[in-house]
Amino acid sequence: MGRTPEWQEYQQEVSSFLSELGFDTRVDETIEGARGQHDVDVVARLSIAGVNILWLIECKAWRRRIPKERILALQGIVDDIGADRGLVFSESGFQAGAIRATQNTNITLTSLEDFRLNFQDEVSAAKAKVLDERIARLMKVYEAVWDLVETERQAAFSRYSGPPGFDFLEGGPHAMTGVTSHLSMMRQSLESARFGRWPVAYFPLDIIDGESFDVTDWEGLLFVAEQSIVTCDRIYGHMMTPGASPVDWKTLQPPELTSLLSAVRSQ
Question: Tell me: the pLDDT tens digits for 49-58?
Answer without folding.
Answer: 677 889 999 9
